[in-house]
Each structure stands twice: as structure tokens, then as C-alpha cells.
Amino acid sequence: MHLATYVGLLHGGEGTLADAYDMIRAGHAEEKEVARTCRLLAAQCREHVAMLAPIVERYGEHHETAPERLHADTLPSTRTGGVGLLRDLQDLLLLATLVDCTWTAVYQAAQALRDHGLIAAVRSCQPETKIQLAWLTTQLKAAAPQALLVAK
Amino acid sequence: MGGREMTDRIADIWGVRTPHAPQQPWPVRVDTMLDAGVSEATVSWVPSVCVLCSNGCGCEIAVADGRMVGIRGRDVDRVNHGRLGPKGLYGWQAANSPDRLTRPLVRRDGVLTESTWDEAMALITDTSRRLLAESGPLSHGFYSTGQMFIEEYYTLGVIGKAGLGTPHMDGNTRLCTATAAAAFKENFGSDGQPGSYTDLDVTDAIFLYGHNMAETQTVLWARILDRLAAPNPPVLVCVDPRRSNVADAAEVHLPIRPGTNMALLNGLIQQLIELDAVDHDWVAAHTIGYDDLARTVAAYPLDKVADICGVPAADIRRAAEIFATAPSVMSTVLQGVYQSNQATASACQVNNLHLLRGLIGRPGSGLLQMNGQPTAQNNRETGAGGDLPGFRNWDNPEHIEQLARLWNVDPLKIPHWAESTHAMQIFRYAEQGSIRLLWIVGTNPAVSMPDLARIRRILADERLFVIVQDCFPTETTALADVVLPAAMWGERTGTCTNVDRTVHLSDKAVDPPGQARSDLDIFCDYAKRMDLRDRDGNPLIGWHDAEGAFAAWRECTRGRPCDYTGISYEQLRGGGVQWPCNDAHPDGTERLYTDGVFPTAADECETYGHDLLTGAGVSPQQYALLDPAGRAILKTAHYQPVDPTSGDYPLALTTGRTVYHFHTRTKTGRARQLNDAAPGPWIEVSTADATQLGLAEGDLALVETENGAVRLPVRVGRGRPGTVFIPFHYGTWDDSDELPRAANELTDTVWDPVSKQPQFKLAAARITRLGPGAQPTPAPANTASAPAKPEPSLAAGAGGPRNGGA
Hints:
By secondary structure, chain A is an all-alpha fold. In chain A, 79% of the residues lie in helices and 0% in strands.
């Protein structure tokens, strides 16, 4: 059974995403709305990590470490300026997308397992991940023209 | 006949009572002021509307020998029935002030120098063309106001959106009214004030959330006072950390901890459900989202909410019982919600409360999500600010097509790839150097924006070409590259719309001084000099005067919720008319949503909405799945605690408007009576905090936050312990003290994730006593700033006690 791999991917992915939000918040402190919402979303990801604790206990977690395997890397650092912010938002989008589709896969398995606890966890967390994606997309769409056409 | 003998609105802010019971009309009481020595027989009266608060009182300007010499309230006007407040009665005198801007100014060798219109406009258009060639329209930003007329806003909106093609247009309406619009859009699908002031004449209960109506809309408050003085008065509930006159009149006062509106409102909804007061049939027929709402608010039981908000549970319960049982309820909301934590989410909960009982669109039941300024509604309607004209949806291609056809431009010319850029982001782009031309119209960001040190730095940056169009020299014109002298109210013709959708016409009464020109003429001149054309090569702006601009605007509103097609200048000269006014409603419309049908249909709505916690946009596809189809949308979010206070900065600082002044006092500071009544700023401290800090009434104190410091005299007032207050009106133009005194030296650059309205109501501060003051604290004693211990020597409205240690 490979569920442990996906539980590990999810557990690690939410933690990595939380760290990434924190990093963007600190690196783009002058982008007030981005920084403020990143603080909120980092806390949200950490709540997801906490909600996964009993799941991890039940199924264990297996972490893929080989680079050719799928896993979420932390961001190395933040960039500067308008284009830098755009790129960093894209990195967050990629990480959040990975977390989102992992929730989807785990949800499918949870239904096949008839695991009410896991189903409840996904239903509680994944909608928030989807809103994170929508927020990042909203920010990206607003920021892109200025960053790509006129930013210094 | 001397005006001041007739009416005194300084000591007697709300005037004599004219009580009336429900169902009886509000009696007429005409307030008048004329310059000393002017006889009523020798003046002519020009119909207008007061623009010194958002109430929109109909008035007439007295003119003699080409000068404004007085004012009176208009008896037939539906808004005020003849009354005027302090600002309306005295503020007009600013027009005759000797320091009006009368010639264009151009910065030469670092100094603003008198110039000509030709030279100033040539400098503007040369710079504009150069930047358009170098970087395109995203190099241009416009920051306008809540003070212009429809005709001017609409012209500016067409220039920016169809002529230049920049999304960087917003108004200072972002600071005052953005949340009202945002909350309407989220719940009802579109902006549009649903209620009518006449609802106050018959309602059974009035809830005022963060709304010190007694000072911010004095004539509307007089309307309520007249109910309170008669049989069967309404019950009032007041949510405000300060002990305002509204709080004094309320049955329940909830002086909640700043920043906790959302917890209170989720708690009130939870109580409403617990009291089984939800009209489930109405909710099922006219709303979506009830189950999610009920699930979320279940996490806000009474005791928890009382603990978060710092008010007794019994008081919250009593407020909920009033809302649950009153046959009709009116709610009003203002900056205590809009400029605080979770602004839009909180304002939406006020809408939700009404939806849950179906208390909307019925006489006596409705909402006044107040505006901060007299014409703020029009900036929202016309597209000079962050919205598209006629409440159109930037994400709906058909709405963009409508505008493109109307303006005869390529749809792609109209920026609609995202929501328009909000004011705070416009200043951020200017700070980063990507916006290089900023045109500021009728507003004074160097006093009114948060974190003034930063705003000054941005405006002074040599990379930014700053145009400021105003009537007076201000803290902002001092930082401009070009200053354009503008005509004031009474010196130009135009229309505007107030909080209950009443459209008024303000006719030109006198000529502007010197070379000052109307905002409309200035915009038309820019469009002509820039040779802005439609796709057939015709001039983009096809009108030359106010009535022509109004005709163009009417066409733009055809079929939209704010339909003006039935309104004419001639009709407005007879008094205000409420939109929508069209063939179906030739006399206007008293209240919206009387049939419980809301403009949420996907092809009609102004927005597909947002997540209230983060501001994440809802996509067209998600909205189609929701399929509100005319039903209102119940939505909420969890309370997000923000407590900025810390060991270093232990006090919660709020800022706000007070009764004798408007904005940064460019007008009210130049009216003698108003200025004398409140000549300088102060800081209000509770008795408990004063004791702890060793502060006495009249002391001078240093107030600091992480952003700055000001020196202010102390008023030991009646506010909530731990919370202090500073009025936001006072800048530096009439201040000789070298130390700063503006409230916004202290505020932080933070805004609501949905409405993008800055958070002026929640900063963390500390106070240090500097010593005794040389003068009494100049705070009014007859309003929310009344001293904790009234003393016999205190003259109403005439500043503080004469015991300041001099």
C-alpha cells in the first residue's frame, strides 16, 4: 500500500508550503497585502499539518528523497522587485498546486478505504488549499502587467 | 437679517427638536445663514447640495453681486427638509477665502512658480506623451476624490479607461467608502444602496455599527433625534469603543475592543439563529449559503464573543434580542467597520443579519452602508475609481463590449484583465518607480493617507511627475510638479448622489476666482490637447459642458441598476430624485429589492465575488456553479484576531472624523466658526489610562507608533480603557509648530483584503507625558470628545477647560 507515500507527501508538502509563505512574507515585507496574507496562509498550512497528525499515526508516512521522485522542495530564497514578486508568487502556486492535487489523490483513496476520519480531514483542508490557489492567482493576474511591462 | 442670529450650529449642533411620531412626515425646519449686513431681499438663491458630508442635504446658495453671501437648507428637499449641519451652514465661506489657488503653478528650479494654463497643460501633455511612448499607459495613475460631480468623474473615467487605457485609477473613496461598495457586491451582486432615509422615519430599531452619526451626518442624526423626542421612538443599539452622543442615546452600547467587529457580528448571527428568529421561508426563497453561514457562526457562542470583544455577554444578548424581535430594523455602518480589521467581511455580516430576517426593501427595514463623502457614490458608479462605469463587471466580456460600443473603442483598449488598481497599490507602484505620472484631483493624500512619512517620500521622489488639481494650497500641492487651480462647489455645475441614491443638481452660482477652472474643463482640455480619439477618429470626449457630460453618463447607465436615463437637469432643479429613474420609474425609486430579487444573475452582477478572508477572486466558472440567479449571497469568514499592541506600544489607537471638520480642513479650516470650534487636534485618553500614565486634562503628550510621533494636547475623555483616539483632520498648512500633529503620521499601511480600504482604526501606540500645556485642549465638549468630568466652565463646542496649566 502506497498511501503512506502520499500521506508523507501531503504532510511534508503542507509544512513546506507554510515555510514558503513565511519566506515570501519576510522577503516581500513591503508588499503589505502579500505579506499579511502569507502570514495567514502559513498558519492555515500549519493547521493542516496538525490535522494530518492522526492520519500519519494511522498510516505512517513515507518520504521520497530521490530527486527524480515527486516531492516539494523548499524555496531557496526570495527575489526582489516587481518581477521577483511575480516569480515568487509562481513558486508558491506550484507548491500549492502540488499540495492540492495530493489532497485530491488522498481523498480518492480515503473514499475507497471508507475512512471517515480521513474524508473529514480532506473536506476540511482542501477547500482552504483551493482558496490559497485562487488568492495566488488573483495576485498573479493583478501583478503581471506592471511587472512585465513597466517595472524597473 | 443676520444669519448667525437665526441659526447657531456650533453650540446647537442638531438644532431645535421637531418631534414626529412614526408615519407622520418629518417636519420642515429651514436653517439659514447670511453674511452680516446682507438682506435676504437682495440675494438670489441658486439650487445646490451640500458637499461637506455624505448626507447630501439639498440647499440654496445665496448670491449677491457675484459673490456667495450665504446659504439655506432647501425646504422641499427629501433629504433634509430644510436643515443644515454645522459644516453646511458655515463651510461655504471657504469659497471667499483669500488664499484660493487662482493661477496654475509650475515647479521651476525646485520652486512652485506662477504660470499660465497653456504652459502648465503643455508640460502635462508633453510629459504624458513621453511616458506613453516610453512605457505605455501603465506609467499613468490617477488618484481622485469623493468631491467631484458625476460629469467630472465620468469624463475622467472615459479619458483614463478608453483614452489612455490605464487601470491605475482610484479615488480617496478607497479610504472612505470602498467597503460599503464591496459588501453590497459580495451579498447582493452589485453596488447600490438599498435603503431610504425615509425608513428612519418609521423604523422600530436602529443599529449603528462604528458610525458616530451624531458627528458625521448631523442632519441625519437630527432626523433620529426627532423620532426619539416623540411617541413610539425607535430603540438604538450602538457599537463604538467611544462614548459618542449616539452611545448616550442608545439602549445598548457595545464599546467593543478595536478590531473585533467580526467576532461580534458572527456572534450576533449565532444569537439570531439560537433565538430562532431566522425567516427560513424567506431565506430559502431569496438567498443562498445559509448552511455554510450557520456552520461558521456556530463557533461564536455568546461567552466567547463577550470575551473577545471585551463587553458584557448580557449586552450582546440584549442587542441580539432587539434585532430578533423588532418588527422593522435599520442598520447603518461607517468607518468603525470600514477602516478596521476584516472590514468587508464585517460589513457583509450586517447585510446578512437583514437577509436572515428578510428585513430589506420594506418600509423601516433596510441598510445604510454609509459613504464617507458627498459624491463618493458617484466615483463608484462612473468609473473614475476602481470600478467600471454603471456597476459593470470587469470579468464579464459582455459588459466590456457594452462599454466599447458606447465609447466606440476596441474592447482591449479598456483595461479589464484584473480589477482596477486600488489607491494603496497605485502609491506602491509610484514608490517603485513604475508609475511615473500621478494626477491627484481634489484630495490631500499628504494628510489623509496612512504613514505620511512614506507618502511624502513618494510624492517628493523626482522620478514621479505629480499633478495636483485643487482649490487651495495643501500639504499635497506643496509636493507637486504642476498645480492646477480648480473651481469649487458653487462655481461649477454638476450632479451627485448620496447614500439613499438621491441625485441632486448643484448649479453654478458664481464664477471661480482668478484663472481657476472647473474640473470638467480641465479634463476636456487634457483630452483635446492629447487628441484622444475613438476608433473612427472622432474626439473621444464628445461633450463640452456639464449637461452634455450628464447626457453621456445617462446613456452609460441604461439598463444598469443605477439607471439615470429618466433624470434631467430640469427635473433635479425641483429637488432630489432617487435612482433608478427611467421609463418604468419616472419619479425614481424609494428603495431597492422590494421584491427580494437581487442583481446576482451572472450576466448582471458587478462581481463574481471574493473569499472574505483572503480576497481571493471567485472565477466565472465557480460563480456559474453557485448560480445565485437573483438570490442574495450569504457569506462569512472566521474572526481573525489582530492585536497590534505590545509591551512597547500598549494602546490601541483609533482615528476619525469629528463634528466641526471635514477631511483635512481645506474648507472647514477656512470657515471661522468651524475653525474656532475645534482649532487643533488632540488625543483622547480614558480616565483609567490617564491615571496610569500620569496624564491630566490639558497636558501635552508625545504619541508614538512604529511609524512616527506627534505631539498633542490631552483630553481625558470617556472612551474605552486601553483605546485612544485622535481626529484625522489636522495637517500642517495652518500650523506653526515644527512638530508633526497629523494622525496619519502614526497609522500603518494595512488594508482590507477585499475592499482594499486602509485600516485607520487600529494602530499600536504609546504615550509619554511631556508636561503641562500652555492652552486648554481644543477638543469640543459637546460630542464624543466630551471630557470625562464635565466642568461648569466648559462652553459647548468652544474647546476645553481653562485649566491647562498656563
